[in-house]
Amino acid sequence: MEAKEEIYQYIRKNIKEDGVTAQSIAEIFGIKRNVASHYLNLLEKEGKLQKGTNRPVHFSIPTDTEKKAEECNNMIDERPAAQKEVSVFSKFIGYNGSMEQVIEKCKAAVNYPVNGLTMIICGASGVGKSYLASLIHQYAVESGAVEKNAPFVVLNCADYANNSELLSSVLFGHVKGAFTGANEEKQGLLAEADGGYLFLDEVHNLSAENQEKLFLFIDSQKYRMLGDSKNWQTAKVRLLFATTEDIHSTLLATFRRRIPFEIRIPDFLERSYGERFLLVSSFFQNEAEILKKNICVDSEYFRRMLNLHEEGNIGAVKSKIKVLCAQAYSQQREEELRITTPGKESSDSFHFYWNRPEKKKWMSSYQIFSNITGCFVPGMNYSKIEEVLDLFLQTITRRLEENKKENNFCEIPPFRHYEEKCRNSINKILKSYGYRLNELEIDEFYKMVIAVLFDETFFGAAFKISGYEKKKYRKYEVMISRILDAVLEDYNDNVREFLQTILTVWLSDKVKVKSKINALILMHGEHSASSMASLANEMIGDYVYEAFDMPIQVHTEDLIVKVNDYVRDIETNEGLVLLVDMGSLERMYDKISCNVDGDLVIVNNVSTAFALELGFSLFDKADIYRITQMDMSQFNMKMQYYKGLSQKPNIIVSCISGEGIAVEIKEILSRYVNTDEIDILTMDYSELKKQLNRGSAEDFHNTIVVFTTTPLSSTVVPVMNVEDLVNGFTNPSFPEFMLNKENVREFTNDIIKLFTLKGVASRLRFLNPEVVMQEVDQVIRGYENYYHVQLPNFLRINLFLHTSTMIERVLVKEESGKIDSIDTEGINEESRKFIEVSKDIFKSIMMKYKIEISDAEYLLLYQILQSVIQK
Ligand SMILES: Nc1ncnc2c1ncn2[C@@H]1O[C@H](COP(=O)(O)OP(=O)(O)OP(=O)(O)O)[C@@H](O)[C@H]1O
């Protein structure tokens, strides 16, 4: 649900007389006060809220809106809160999820003046084409687009596939004598459907001639009966087509062109888990109603239905369920029909129940989570997920609370089932990494899982995020992945990926991996390494070790590939320790070291005692130097130490403000550097300083330059300060790639954008800073090109900050305080020209955001740019 709508629903349900303030909404929803105020004002403009006159301003529900909302609610109690308009389409499962766009198109086609628009529904057999067609007709009646008793005539063209003349007569009618046996005149289906809908299923069976006749009818509403070459008939018929075939290869282009709306319904297995759940459930529910029995299905059977891979899609699932229930009905006499997996009749695994009299409660319970994942926007930055998680969890809790009161949802089996699974597996798995979650945290975890699984609107595209620091999250990702393996049964990849992403961020907040240096245990045997690693992790209470088991059948080469895949994804700047059990593994050094940024230590003949000793040191934040000083004599082991920051020429990026910025600078640098030849490493600032102080030139002999955001001097290695770069100071330590002037300019520009992005992001309330920055970049280029100037860096930063916030200000119609002081009358020729040029430069922004930028705003910009463009 959109945040604004969430707020409205909350006020509608919870606040009675005195209303809410922006402050109270901000606290309840965990958002900023000005954002809350913006939403409240929008709701006021829409007439949904009224504004009081006292300070602080109170917003409340106007009395008549409240009444209408109540009435609407009473009419349909299955309505999810977010739904603005109720129609017959709500029977079509997925109508507010994967089918939302499809339904919107259907409504648009029905409502198009004067006679609607022709539509074709494409999709495999049994996906719901005929059902949708019948709902379109019902919607047209409901919305008054056709008369109450308007006909809905259906013809399956496949029935006449081999006899186009007969099909023609069925459609258009015939006159007496039109063909042998035509003893009297007969009206066709077009006449029968006059004033309503004609639905032609399997339309690809229409012959070319019949397609031509039909498109003539679409164009003119006229047709001729078979055998009549003189008279035209007229009818006012809305046409709907459906096909399982590719319309481009089966229908004439001229015919296709007459069909403005083409919609596609996906296969059953392409639907989200939540939608499949609803479909299967609704079919069992129907049977419970028809047979007047409670139905109880074991979970395995239920899952089978959810994953049924049949050509007939939803239709096949529905018939299978019908047959199943019919068989149970004829064989069982009890009040409750039991449907169990053959051979598992006595199993006491959990069951799903469909209770006849409780239908409505049940349906609305599954709509609790409708749209809930909508607060995570695809493409959002990883760092933002944490913020949104809070809102997400609050919303889940609130919706559950609301529904608990009304529906006693807790009794619903699948919720209980997932809760049990989470309770049983989370701590068992985390234990082997040295952690455990408390009851409340497990509660949060399972609620997030069910909210995503049962959000029937969560569908389709993979959830991509930006700014992902893989190395930072790698270990949390491993833990979550193992938990999800244990908890999820049927899911599609996108659901899993989404859960994996948000839960990884969530877990990184709940447990903290303390040891900074990564350590791997590699041992021969099925489980030797994993048992040792989990024992050590558990005793140390930290995820120090990752295990790599090497059963007899696995070759060292294969293990090396696995280890390297892992090592590439983790932080190795500070070093890596490998504990191995014997010879062949010990010699892995040269195969792995190329992926290790820091020093590498290999210890052979590993024992649990040593793993614990080392693990506690790592947990205690020992650096690699201290590790190399450990007394090995008591363990009867050998340690090999390989020094090296990077084996290749490298550039080090280090920022005092944290790794996030360093990673982003690294990303920019990698566009200009050949990363096959040069490594770009990020390094903790204090660690870098320590190493520079301690180390000799030898340690950094492969380092070309160190990039920092804070001045840092070193005699050992060239240092390039980002601030100097922004200010345009040339520096002899520019790496070679930057000797090219154009490169330096582009690179500097990217860096400026990065820094301004942070600044802009903290100023913007609604707009996506990354998108706005791109747009402002175009604006700056526009001015540079027009005035043939190159704006100095400080001015560019100023413009980025000013212009992006100006766009948002104009969008929400807030005036800048400075605007008052701008005199738009009596301005000189140059500024008039500037306004004209600016209008052109801002044209696409104005079109995109549908805003009008005032002359006063341009004059403000003029003041900023004046000194440069007057030169
Ligand atoms: N979204 C849905 N919500 C609820 N029921 C559905 C939905 N989609 C399909 N069904 C049910 O599935 C069954 C099969 O649908 P339908 O007959 O409309 O499929 P079809 O695509 O027209 O199949 P065919 O191409 O074989 O004619 C119907 O009984 C319908 O009620």
UniProtKB/TrEMBL annotation:
Protein origin, superkingdom: Bacteria
PROSITE patterns, sorted: PRD_2, PTS_EIIA_TYPE_4, SIGMA54_INTERACT_4
Sequence ranges assigned to domain PTS EIIA type-4 in this UniProt record: 516-645
Name this polypeptide is given: Sigma 54-interacting transcriptional regulator
SMART domains, A to Z: AAA
Source organism: Dorea amylophila
PRD domain segment(s): 767-871
InterPro entries assigned: AAA+_ATPase, FaeA, P-loop_NTPase, PRD, PRD_sf, PTS_EIIA_man-typ, PTS_EIIA_man-typ_sf, Sigma_54_int
